[in-house]
Structures are given as C-alpha cells and as structure tokens.
Amino acid sequence: APPGYFVCEPAGKRVVIQLRGEAADQIGFAVMRGFGALPKRGAEVGGVLLGRVETGEKTVVRIEEFIPIPCSYLHGPSYILSADDLPPLDSALAAHSKEPGAQLRVVGFFRSHTREPIQLAEADLALLDARFPDENAICLLVKPFATRPGEAVFLAREGGRFSDEAQTETFVFRRKEMRLPPAPKRISGPLQP
Asked: What is the tens place of the pLDDT at every residue in 42-68?
C-alpha cells in the first residue's frame, strides 16, 4: 500500500481495502460532530466513499475521499435517508460515476453507527442495493464512543450481497491504532504570498 494508508484485508474475502489517512480524519471528524450533536447516542452521519478500484488476484479498493450526504432525520437520530435526502446523494453518485478518465469514482458508502450491535440495517441494505450496485462496492461503519476511540468495520459483498449479521471483527478507528503517520500540522495565521 502507498505510505499514509490504512490497509484492511477482511479474512476469507478477495478484497483489500486501503483508506487514506486524511480521509479517515475527515470521516472521524464528521462522526464525532454527529455524535456530539444530540445527548445519549448522538446523530448518525453518512456519505459516499470516493477512490479507485484495481482488479486482479485480489480486488484493491483504495478510498481517497468522502462526500458527506445530509440527512433530514425523519426517523430519529439514525442515518436513514428519506426521499427528500436522495437528490444530493444521486448528484454525488452521478458526478463520480465510472466515466473513463474520471480521477475518483464512487467505491462505496459510509455511515456512523450508534446502535447495538454493529450491523447493516434493512434500510442500509436497500440503499446499498439501489444506489451502490457495483459488485466491488464496500461499506464502512464507524461506531463512536464518548470515552474511548471508535470502532469500525469494512463490509464487502459476498455472493452479490452484503451481510446483515452483527459484526464482531472490528478495528480501532484512530490514527495511532491504524498505524497511520501523524496528521500533517495545520498552519495558522495569514497566508504568505
């Protein structure tokens, strides 16, 4: 994997997932902002994962960026998109389709997960089937906690479908445990010419 990427190889699957450190930071920030938005379990957030897919002996899915997709929360704090939430999602999907020469394309779906246990819900499965039909599409679920780092899991299709079972093979979603280099320091102050 290129330097600065977290690598995940789910056991028994023919896929390798590489997550760019900066994308992990952006996702983590969005997750914690949603988690802190409401008392108790927080609001879930989600979006589209962008990157590249290389097929071979194993399929390599490289996640470079993500696009947050707002939710109107008509069903409480869970990230369940309503009909009114779908146009921004569809616009993001259309803008990053598999057009030849496209720099980044849609490689999957992401959402935070504040429920128990960590698993895809019926609404997630329907969304993945309808809007992310590519056989190599992946899903990232990130579970935040108030007093410790979050946990995450990558899911890939097996036999054409995503699992709806509770996930127990998670990883710690924090730079240090993901063995990513420290985040670049931000320069503050006025820009120099």
From this structure: 899 999 999 999 988 899 999 999 999
The predicted model scores a pTM of 0.90
37's CB contacts (< 8 A; 6+ apart) are 43
Reading the block at residue 1, the tokens are 């994997």
Dihedral sign for Cα 39, 111, 128, 154, please: negative
Angle made by CA atoms 25, 171, 57, in degrees to the nearest 5: 95
Residues 6+ apart with CB under 8 A from 187: none
CA dist 90 → 86, 97, 123 (Å): 6, 10, 16
Nearest one of 90, 47, 37 to 71, comparing CA atoms: 47
Q: How far apart are CA 111 and CA 183, in angstroms?
A: 22
Report CA 147 to chain centroid distance, whole Å: 22
β-bridge partners, 136: none
Q: How far is CA 107 from CA 18, 47, 136, 166, 191, in A?
A: 11, 11, 7, 23, 35
For residue 87, say if its preceding peptide bond is cis, omega within 30 degrees of 0. Answer: no
**How many Å apart are CA 80 and CA 123, to the nearest integer?**
7
N residues, the chain:
193
